[in-house]
Every structure is written in structure tokens, then in C-alpha cells.
Amino acid sequence: GKTWLFYVRIYAITYSTTYLGLNIKDCPPVHFSIVTFLVIELDSVALLFLLRVRAIFHDVPRIQVFFTFLWVLVFGSSVLHFFVTHGVHSLVEPKTCTQELTESFYSIVPIGILLVFDTIVYIAISYRLFQTFLFNEKDEPVFQRTRILLNGITLPTFSRSLFRDGQLYYL
Question: How confident is the model at residue 148, as a pLDDT?
Fold first, then answer.
């Protein structure tokens, strides 16, 4: 859970130091390596969520196939990152590199597909956890039931940590 945060931070540090501070003679190879790490990071996090949802829905093969198909869409659309931007020398600071966007519409596609995938996975896992460990608080007011739903208080420890880890990802 916490490992991917480490990789995201490494990527952010690499990106900012490469594009903002270093003197680079040839921008395209550096840009290619940065985009490669971005694609690996995004697809790896999506794969972790796929494995998580497959574990939660181990007894429902159709849902496993559906989420595997969605992950294949995420993986396939991430290839667009290589075609929508390219590295060029900055006009302000010619010794540093910057990104130039070539197709703005196609840059939204992988981000949108990833957002849809992550959201559907989060909703499906949360639904399954609360369906499995149904809380019997039907006599409580709506505010109290909503608080229980958002905090995951009625879930067992492992399921609660799985639920809260998903919440942290979206924050």
C-alpha cells in the first residue's frame, strides 16, 4: 500500500529535477525515459487495484473478467502518453527541457480511463466489504449511518485497513 507512494514521490523528484534544474543537451531521450517511468508507475498502481478487486471478488468470475478488461484499457491507453507530448528545450532557459503538448484531447483519454477504473474499483471494493460485513444500524439516524459508512467502524480490522487504504489513495 505505502510502496507505491514511494514510487510516486521518486517519479515526482526525478521529473522536477530533470526538467527544471539539469542542463540537458538532448531532450527527447530524457523525456522518453520520464514518460516510461510514468507509464510503469500508473500501470503498476492500476495492476495493484486489479489484484485487490480480483481477491475481493474471487467468487464472481464475470466481475473479474470485467475489471481485467478495464485494466487492459488502462494499460492500452497509457501508451498514448508517448505520443501526446514530446521533450523540447525551454524557450526561457535553453539548457533545460520542457514538455510540449501535441494533442490535448488524446492526453485526456488515459487520465480519464484511469480515473474511471480507479473509481469503479474503489466503489466495488467498498460495496463488497460493506455487503459482506453488513452493519445492522437500521434504527440509527441517517447521519450516524453515513458516519459508520465513511469510517468503516463496523468492518473487521483487515477489511477496515483495506477500505481506508482505498480512501487514502483518493485523497
Answer: 62
Model's pTM, two decimal places?
0.71
Strand, helix or coil at 23?
Answer: coil
What separation in angstroms does the CA of 48 have from each of 71, 87, 118, 129? 10, 30, 11, 17
Distance CA 60, CA 111 (A): 28
Q: How far is CA 14 from CA 20, 21, 101, 125, 143, in A?
A: 10, 10, 20, 33, 44
Q: CA angle, 125 as apex, 136 and 121 as ends, to 5°?
A: 150
* Single-letter amino acid, residue 165: D
Which amino acid is it at 42? L
What DSSP string runs through 101-161? Answer: ES-HHHHHHHHHHHHHHHHHHHHHHHHHHHHHT----TTS-HHHHHHHHHHTTTS-HHHHH
Instruction: Enter the DSSP assignment of 25.
Output: S
pLDDT digits (tens, 9 = 90+) for 38-63: 888 888 888 988 988 998 899 999 99
3-state secondary structure 53-106: HHHHCCCCHHHHHHHHHHHHHHHHHHCCHHHHEEEEECCCCCCCEEEEECCHHH
